[in-house]
Amino acid sequence: MTLAGRTSRAEALAARLPPLLVEAERVAETVRQGVHGRRRVGTGESFWQFRPYTAGDARIDWRQSAKSDRVYVRETEWEAAQTVYLWRDPSESMAWTAESSRPTKRMRAELLSLALAALLLKGGERVALPGSSAVGGRGALERLGRSLLTDSAAMPSHPLPRHSSLVLIGDFLDPLDDLAASLQVQAARGIGGAIVQLLDPAEVSLPWEGRVRFHGLEGEGDELVPRVGAVRDAYQDAFVAQTQALERTARAAGFAIVRHTTDKPPQDALLALHAAMRGERA
Amino acid sequence: MIGFATPWVLAALLSLPLLWWLLRATPPAPRRVDFPALRLLRLIPKREETPVRTPWWLLLLRLAIAALAIVALAGPVLNPTPPAPGNGPLLLVVDDGWASAHTWDAIKQAAGDAIDSASRAGRPVILLTTAPGNDGAAPRVAGPLPAGEARARVDAMAPKPWAVDRATAAKALETARDIGGAVWLSDGLTSDGSDALSEQLAKRSAIVRVPDMRNASRLLRPPPIGDAKLAAHVLRASSDGETPVTVRALAADGRILGRATTKFENGAREAVATFDMPIERRNETARLEVEGENSAGATVLLDEQWRRRPVGIVRGASSEQRLLSDVYYLERALAPFAEVRVGDLGELVQRELAVLVLPDSGALDGNELTTLTRWVEQGGLLLRFAGPKLAQGGDALLPVRLRAGDRALGGSLSWSEPMKLAPFPETSPFAGLSIPGDVAISRQVLAEPAVDLAEKSWARLADGTPLVTAASRGNGRVVLVHTSAGPEWSNLALSGLYVDLLRRIVAVSAGVAASPGTQLLAPRRALDAFARLVEPDAAAVPISASAVALARAEPRHPPGLYGPEEQTRALNLGSNEPAPAPLETVGVTRAGYETTGETRLAGAFFSTALGLLVIDALVALVLGGLLTLRRPRSAVAALALLFAFSAHAQEKPAAELASKTVLAWVRTGDPTVDRTSKAGLSALARTLMQRTAIDEADAVGIDLERDELAFHPILYWPSTAGQKPLSEAARQRVNGFLRGGGLLLIDTRDGAASPSPALRAALQGVDIPPLVQAPPDHVLSKSFYLLNGFPGRYESGPLWVDGSANDKTDGVSSVVLGGADWAAAWAEDEAGRPMFAVSPGGGRQREQASRFGVNLVMYALTGNYKADQVHVPFILQRLGQ
């Protein structure tokens, strides 16, 4: 690809960014209203709660203890900043939708990534793409978005820094060996996270009828099915098997699984994802 | 029985097995779909796939389509006309004289079939029509022509209002060569030269088609001039069977004045239908026609000769005072129904008179007596009145011998009262008249008793003395009223009975045969073969007045009306045609017209194939997965819709029609007229929505034979030449519509509101009330807009509305008839521009026309509401001030 070609492609991608950011902020905002703070005891600055003294506690809060007969300990909220790595499947099969009224899987993946990033940044976390340095603070979302749109890195197979989390978004319909390997590397370093399996409803239900020639998007060739209705059940069996395999792989590495289809609103996935992240860090 | 126009096309059916093989080998094309989860699909264990083949039923469907198309291309014909006899050029002899008019449709159909059959066999056609042409050209052979041109000529053929000339036709055939076979489409009646023609045709292996004799044309002879009642003589060709026949009398404007029904007795060829009509009606009669037979032969035009009954009144001494003068009373009483002339005796006798009235005159002197006696004996009716002078002594020209002197009743010196009238005897011409109670006779002259006095008396007094006596003399009659013509001797002259008596007396007089002059009369209106009055052809030449009665209809003298308005003479086809008799033929095959009537089936085959093709397309869509059957109802609905469309674009459902004001127009079958009606009524509906309180208006076309009329307030019926008579059911539907308060607007579209014969025939049996011309202040002129006229495309023209005061509809006319071609004035195209020019033109006229439309609909909806309501605000305003 020539330089000019690459520039124009970058420009075309960049044109998508502002609306995508706006949408991501909007989605994140709807979720944020339902999530307040970390609500967990930790090493932070702000006050979290008073708790009755138990043997072994070091820091008695004398001011509070003086107000009553009991002795209290002051606890602060957990506020450790963490780096969350976001990765979305860059393959061609993601740029697909069965119905033009629905967004492609890639568009939804990017939206989810950025919305999650917005949510995390707001919470003071640091967000990064695998293979780039973590960003945080003001303006981070826009920088992140710009690199996300052009990112075509494969799934991270090198271990990430300690105390970080990893979010993987993709359809995961391919053989899961790569994923399992990657997850094992991360799990070995104590890194957890979440996996979002993002699918088009048509991939779940195989809604076509009659004689159909299916065409693969990643150069797999064609497959002629004489009567789609007749193979639907078998396909769904294969699909369920794949999903269950994915679930096993994720669980083995301590990753949460969020399943999402593009016909549902992104808020659902974001909320589930956020909850999963929180649970992972507990 | 099915035949084929081009049977060799059927050989293509042999290719069907090949098609079968091809179709089997080619499965339907799959649909291509991008799919990321292809890997999962590949994981599915392959089942043993049935070979990808078109299903057998789809194959069968496609083969059926192909077979249908091939058969349709071969031109299938149901009941094909058997091939014409012989081979080589086909001679088609067509009788197109007056007698063909009645069966013309069948003749034309048979001619078309014969040409089709000839064209199938690849034979050219030779045409010979047996009646002289409009320009007087003798029958001659035309052709050989290719089938297409022969068909065009047959299409342009029309029967002629004169007799066929078969002798000349036979002569024309003598020289014709190369004739392979012949078909003679005859009118079934014999004529001069029939034998010669049949002989010529017999040489050429011919078929002659003869109509059913019960159906053959009838001939109507003009009623004898001078009969008291119009008596129409109807002649038929065959003498078998009892057949009823109805003759009707029509006025010049087409109103039916009377009907006379009679029947042909078994074995009789002639039937006489006698009209019993009041003298006024009789005098109004302009034409007689045999009902159900639109032919010049079955129509008689009546001219002045049949209606003239001029009455002369002999003037007495001129010094009399007006109200005491006999002449004054006579003139007033006779004027309504007779042409009255007043003058001296000598002068009157010179002129043509049916009745001569002689008021009290005293005895006639010798000279007068001779003149009058001769006049009476030639057929005149002399009506005399008594009086003081006659009482002095009678003369020879009286029905009875009179006693000298008069008899006074109820005078100051007598004990008797003025005498009433006795009821009229059955045999008297006055029978049936009612006698007012106050009529009394105070003086009379008395007859000498005689043996025949009773039978000479037409009216008597209560005591049996004669009041009116009559006696025949020569061809004529003398009638004497035994009292005075004025009020001097009785109050008879002041009563209505006086008028009735005079009317009956005039009615029994002979009509006056006008002396035929020698002046030339130019043809004014000609009767065509279908008995329509049309402009005469250029070939028609003037005829001498004396020759009219003896002339046979021919191209130079077509039947019709000749001469200027006041001197019109009618030349009737029926006057001098020989009586119809069945056609005799020797050596040719006879056949009727019934066996023909072939039906082409190509259209049906093609449309079936098309329907199957649509099903095939749907099936292909389903198999290809482009159309899911998950909602089979929608597919069924689509199919149903498809069939609904192919069957007929059905009209709107009743609920929709009833929920708004839907104007209706009658589908006439003439595409131009229908288009105009549709555009006109739709534009009117739009106008109504824009200008009036009617929120929703629409217009639909109505087929009177099929559609319900109850939803429509108004029905617009444009008249066309091709108007078909209504079926019984349709007639009842229209009658129900009129009874139920519907408004029928009949538009003759000629600017003059004169209904065509076709329209008349169609309206027969429809309850059309007696129509009168709408007065300028009719409700129609103020039901919404205030209008001064009812213009349409033509500005002026009469508008006829119900004249009877009908209580049931509150005096609202259920029928409006006019000729202004309103729909054309209303009609707008899609862009809202007028479609037709109005005459004389101008935006004002168009606006007035559309205002009339609004008024009309308002009239249909609100009846006579506006008759009194329209001025209420003004009245209230004035009262307030």
Automatic annotation (TrEMBL), chain A:
Superkingdom, taxonomy of origin: Bacteria
Residues of the DUF58 domain: 50-242
InterPro entries registered for this protein in UniProt: DUF58
Pfam short name (any one): DUF58
Name the record gives this protein: DUF58 domain-containing protein
Source lineage: Bacteria, Pseudomonadati, Pseudomonadota, Alphaproteobacteria, Rhodospirillales
TrEMBL record, chain B:
Boundaries of every Aerotolerance regulator N-terminal domain copy: 1-76
Annotated keywords: Membrane, Transmembrane, Transmembrane helix
Entry protein name: Double-region
Ranges annotated as spanning the membrane: 6-23, 56-78, 604-629
CDD domains in UniProt: A4_beta-galactosidase_middle_domain
Domain of life the protein comes from: Bacteria
UniProt xrefs under Pfam families: BatA, DUF4159
Domain DUF4159: 663-861
Organism, scientific name: Roseiterribacter gracilis
